[in-house]
Write a structure and sequence with these properties.
39% helix, single chain, 22 strands, 589 residues, 20-stranded antiparallel sheet
């Protein structure tokens, strides 16, 4: 192994050990700087130019929420004991190695952080590496144990040939671990401040952060983008994150310049595409809250007016409840509102900025060889409605190959779109097989070889009925829809238990029953196809994943099904951007 590879391995090992201790169960976090008595929110200590931050409000509460969640209860179910025992045995060796290195096993390390934890990336100026890393975690009453672990990291570093030195700054002892083989490699620096532990990618950053133990005036909390995102997401999240997209795009341009691409050209392209309209984004995740087992919410801040590609995503709010043709037995349902007239206008505007009149030229070329040809706006866009629906289910008995799905595009004028479809077939020279089903013409296309290799058997079927253009990748669900005579999804009790949490008007709406998908995955574990995939990924060795996924270790599927409940989601586009929410309801709620 080359010296550079050794250095990288050493650095990865040391950072991994430190992160294991600081972050605990997850890499998402909220952290705070502390004087040893009171903690200060990360957003009030981090500088306004923070590129990214993810935080856990209180690690101990998050662990409690996980244990109370359905996945936590599943892991504690007696039926899962063989699986959990195998998992522990697989982790036993690395856990013992970790204990030998730092004095604690993996489970013990995971319980160290108790309070707030955060991971952040902070923008740097005039640096080849444009961001710096800063992590903080409050160990609470476990501070003494955490200190022992971090001291052990120093010893491991010395054993690995790294340089370990200490420095003093305003009462803090900075532990600086450097790469002796590469003086240009950034160090790893850690320090303890009361019950809170910090890691930074440079001594300068550690000192800068330590200079503001009670917060700063020009903090992330004062950043207008951060304020807009957090206001939309609400208060007191268990887990949250924030990304300054404007700054990220600037860094992308800067790095492009360092790699020989003209940075001004990249910036101009970003503006021409309208991507500079994306300002920031963030999200939150909460477990075991009220009627919900889990809730995830994300907001993309892109205030009006937007341009370019963002203008194409015109998703006005409307009632997206399932239409009568959607069977009540579907495993998943998603409806999206899309103003295709506005989308087409945005496409033509963007195309004209690169090649004025290019779409008109393409349209004229199509007309030259085929009578009146195909007019994009009048023939293709005009007859379409403002709604796209995707549904899927599983044929019984459920196996890894039984999923089927249908995409439906709403039509304002079915007759006009039938004429459009005929024109498209003629232009493309397509000769699908035609058949009549329940008075509706179905066009069946053979599956292309590249799709067949992905396990899609087909045929791909098209039909116009019920004011929809249906596209199916397996015909039987389409035939069921055309046949009718079933109870619709809107009347299904499981859907109604979820839909009571939906707003009346949305841009996107979704519903899912994870049980059918989980049953399919469960059945796949013992299949020859799954075994072959594992063998391909681990030639000559089944590996720990194959051992863990041995069907003999798992209980009857009914045990797993007890902890699976319906999920819902919705998105709303407003003048300031798009908000997405996804949730899982608790059993019986």
């Amino acid at each position: 192994m080359r010296d550079g590879s050794k250095a990288l391995t050493r650095r990865s090992l040391l950072l991994g050990l430190a992160l294991s201790a600081l972050v605990g169960t997850t890499g998402r976090g909220q952290a705070l700087i502390s004087s040893g008595q009171a903690t200060v929110p990360a957003e009030k200590v981090l500088p306004a130019n923070t590129l990214f931050m993810t935080k856990i409000e209180k690690m101990e509460s998050l662990r409690e929420g996980f244990l109370a969640s359905q996945i936590g209860q599943l892991m504690a179910d007696p039926g899962m004991k063989p699986f959990m025992d195998k998992l522990h045995s697989i982790l036993e060796k690395p856990s013992e190695q970790l204990k030998e290195a730092v004095g604690l096993t993996v489970p013990e390390l995971l319980t160290l952080p108790q309070g707030q934890v955060f991971v952040s990336l902070i923008g740097q100026t005039n640096e080849k590496v444009p961001v710096a890393l800063f992590i903080s975690a409050d160990a609470g009453t476990n501070a003494a144990k955490m200190a022992e672990v971090m001291a052990a990291v120093d010893k491991v570093a010395e054993q690995q040939g790294a340089g370990v030195a200490t420095d003093q700054f305003e009462g803090l002892t900075l532990h600086v671990i450097t790469n002796k083989d590469d003086a240009t490699a950034p160090p790893m620096v850690w320090a303890q401040n009361g019950t809170v532990f910090h890691i930074a990618s440079s001594p300068e950053l550690m000192k800068e952060m330590a200079s503001h133990p009670t917060g700063r005036e020009n903090s992330l909390a004062t950043n207008e983008l951060f304020g807009a995102v957090t206001k939309k997401l609400g208060t007191d999240p268990q887990v949250s994150w924030f990304l300054d997209i404007q700054q990220a795009l600037g860094i992308a341009s800067q790095m492009a310049g360092q790699n020989g691409v003209d940075a001004d050209t990249v910036t101009a392209q970003i503006q021409q595409l309208g991507l500079n309209g994306l300002k920031a984004m963030g999200g939150r995740y909460d477990l075991n809250q009220g009627d919900f087992d889990s809730v995830y919410k994300m907001f993309v801040y892109a205030p009006s007016p937007v341009q370019g590609v963002l203008k194409m995503l015109a998703m006005p709010t409307q009632d997206l409840s399932p239409e009568p043709w959607v069977p009540g037995t579907v495993a998943s349902y998603q409806a999206t509102s899309l103003d295709l007239d506005a989308t087409w206008k945005a496409i033509t505007e963007l195309a004209d900025t690169y090649a004025p009149g290019v779409l008109d030229q393409v349209e004229q070329g199509l007309a030259a060889g085929n009578g009146g040809g195909l007019k994009f706006k009048d023939d293709l866009i005009g007859p379409l409605g403002k709604r796209i629906t995707v549904v899927s289910d599983f044929k019984k008995p459920i196996t890894e190959a039984s999923q089927r799905g249908v995409v439906a595009v709403a039509l304002d004028d079915s007759k006009a779109f039938q004429n459009t479809l005929n024109k498209i077939f003629e232009l493309a020279g397509a000769t699908p097989k035609q058949r009549s089903f329940q008075g509706t013409n179905i066009y069946d296309f053979d599956v292309p070889p590249e799709m067949a290799q992905q396990g899609i058997t087909g045929p791909i079927s098209l039909a116009i009925a019920k004011d929809q253009l249906y596209v199916a990748f397996e015909p039987t669900l389409l035939e069921q829809i055309l046949r009718g005579g079933y109870t619709g999804l809107a009347e299904n009790p499981e859907y109604q238990a979820v839909s009571k949490h939906f707003p009346a008007q949305t841009s996107i709406l979704s519903f899912a029953r994870p049980e059918d998908a989980a049953r399919s995955a469960f059945g796949m574990l013992g299949s020859d196809q799954f075994k072959a995939a594992l063998q391909q990924s681990n030639p000559g060795d089944s590996g720990p994943i194959a051992e863990l996924l041995d069907p003999k270790l798992l209980p009857e599927f009914s045990v797993i099904a007890k902890y699976l409940s319906p999920q819902g989601g919705f998105g709303i586009q407003g003048d300031d951007g798009v908000t997405f929410t996804r949730f899982t309801v608790k059993k019986g709620h």
